[in-house]
Design goal:
This protein has helices spanning 12-21, 31-34, 39-46, 81-93, 126-129, 265-278, 295-301, 320-323, 342-351, 413-419, 438-441, 461-473; strands at residues 50-59, 105-117, 121-125, 134-138, 144-153, 158-163, 185-190, 198-209, 219-222, 234-236, 242-249, 260-264, 284-285, 288-292, 309-314, 330-334, 337-338, 357-364, 367-374, 376-377, 401-403, 406-410, 428-433, 449-453, 456-457, 478-484, 490-496. Residues 1-33, 63-79, 90-99 and 381-397 have low confidence and may be disordered. A hairpin with a 2-residue loop joins strand 24 and strand 25. It starts with 11 loop residues before the first helix and ends with a strand. The radius of gyration is 29 Å and the shape is elongated. It is an alpha+beta fold and 498 residues long. The protein contains twelve helices and 27 strands.
């Protein structure tokens, strides 16, 4: 039989016909090619715990046929922008709509969710119920029940609802998303395109996926078909445990192309517990500003391999300051968890209980130190700090030194006034940048203040040139600068010495 594998494509149909004529049966495709046999068992076990979420809200028409102006606003390019545009166009501004009617209108949307407690507790996405005046849960048998909002967490896009059960409910439990492996089979159940309970299956395509949609991104990526209306629905393992909440898809067409994302159950379970207990999230807070450790920064700090979260600034009122954490420290372990990149630290700190005392291992000047920190509580504000726009003025530049592609001058009253630099900021001010230099590529600009060079304070351009010349003699490939903006916010920048 093995010799037949070498036959040309032209002979294979002839061989197949001969086999059939002889009465031989061709072997069916193995079950593994169609997926594991357990999918039907999982679906039968859990489908009654999956619900449809129906919401409605009243929106004000803007008049003059501009009905689209009343749409909920989402950021341009958001994965939900196309969904909202299509939804409102079809229901209010599309053909046959009442585009000229200026009266308030009721709009509706649909999503998915799942029951985690027989008292009627449902988990879904925040974007499914955002701004809704009325929320209804629709059970798998079609029973529709009004639900109340328990709490939401915008940062993870999760929400918890509560409704009064009409009878005994089927509930599902959370599994351990950390145990998932790439290639594991998963099952998604939800309400795609308002079709009701729909089962799809696929595998885990990736873990810990960061798509820059929020501060705590760590999605499970799957190729199980997830479409509009699946949002808020559960992603199951083959034991029938929820290991994720389907939240996002990437698709140029709006339909599934096999790239879907689910919030892992480890994150969901913690958020749900807090929302049920407090109605809000109480996240841990360390009180530091952090940035990534690039290869250049790692070389400057003698850290091999490049890893961790570099502390660029300390909040004067935060827990890190009394614990002894300093700018320039690199956090490599927090409460027993390895920190490979800044997002790791952000997620772990947020998930740690407020008031807990933890060990934090930092690398300071090439040596590891263990510090104890008692976490505070992160205040959940929506305020965004915007950097002041600085303009390079063509006025006379009192340059005292050139180094690293920078024009440098000692801080004076005139320079503080020109660049609006606070009195608390100390160091050497940048008055000009060579646009062909590494400094320009790293976005240094006039008005920035160099506070430290290679973790040593500087007060003049001569100090900087002296430190740079010495590092070159020592064979260093880069130099680490601690840079402040006019308001005193710090960041580290590594510049090439080549």
């Amino acid at each position: 039989m093995t010799a037949s594998l070498a036959l040309s494509r032209r002979l294979r149909p002839i061989l197949t016909a001969a086999v059939l004529a002889a009465g031989w049966a061709l072997a069916p495709a193995p079950a593994s090619a169609r997926g594991p046999e357990g999918i039907a068992d999982v679906a039968e076990k859990v489908i009654d715990a999956v619900v449809n979420i129906s919401t409605s809200q009243t929106v004000e028409a803007k008049g003059g046929g501009e009905s689209r102006g009343a749409n909920p606003q989402v950021p341009p390019g958001s994965p939900f922008e196309e969904f909202f545009d299509d939804f409102f166009k079809n229901r209010r501004g599309g053909p046959g709509g009442r585009g000229g009617d200026n009266s308030p209108r009721r709009t509706n949307s649909l999503g998915s969710g799942f029951i985690v407690d027989d008292s009627g507790v449902v988990v879904t996405n925040n974007h499914v119920i955002a701004d809704a005046d009325e929320i209804n849960v629709i059970l798998n048998d079609g029973t529709k029940i009004k639900a109340d909002l328990v709490g939401v967490d915008k940062k993870t896009d999760l929400a918890v609802l509560k409704f009064k059960p009409p009878r005994q409910l089927t509930v599902v439990k959370f599994g351990d998303s950390d145990k998932l492996r790439l290639g594991d089979w998963v099952v998604a159940i939800g309400n795609p395109f308002s079709l009701g309970g729909t089962v799809t299956a696929g595998i885990v395509s990736a873990k810990n996926r960061d798509i820059s949609s929020g501060p705590y991104d760590s999605y499970i990526q799957t190729d199980a078909a997830i479409n509009r209306g699946n949002s808020g629905g559960p992603l199951f393992n083959l034991d029938g445990e929820v290991i994720g909440v389907n939240t996002l898809i990437i698709s140029p067409s709006g339909g599934s192309i096999g790239i879907g994302f689910a919030v892992p159950s480890k994150t969901v379970a913690g958020v749900v517990d807090q929302l049920r207990q407090f109605g809000e999230l109480r996240r841990g807070w360390l009180g530091v500003r952090i940035q990534g450790v690039t290869d250049e920064i790692a070389e400057s700090l003698n850290i091999k391999p490049a890893r961790g979260a570099l502390v660029a600034g300390i909040d004067d009122k935060g827990p890190a300051k009394p614990a002894g954490i300093e700018p320039g420290d690199v956090v490599v372990k927090f409460d027993g968890h390895d920190i490979k990149e800044p997002k790791d630290l952000s997620r772990i700190v947020a998930d740690t209980a407020v008031g807990k005392e933890v060990d934090v291992i930092v690398i300071r000047k090439g040596q590891e130190q263990t510090l104890k920190v008692k976490l505070g509580r992160l205040e959940d504000t929506e305020k965004v700090q915007q950097a002041a726009i600085k303009k390079d003025e063509p006025a006379e530049k009192p340059v005292t030194q050139k180094a690293l592609g920078l024009d440098l001058a000692a801080l004076s009253k005139d320079l503080r006034t020109r660049y609006k630099i606070k009195d608390s900021v100390k160091g050497v001010v940048v008055t000009g940048v060579d646009q062909a230099s590494d400094a320009a590529e790293k976005r240094l600009s006039a008005g920035d203040v160099i506070v430290e060079v290679a973790q040593e304070a500087v007060t003049s351009g001569a100090d900087i040139k002296k430190r740079v010349d010495q590092l070159k003699k020592d064979g260093k490939k880069s130099v680490l600068l601690l840079v402040s903006n006019a308001d005193g916010e710090l960041r580290f920048v590594a510049l090439s010495l080549q």
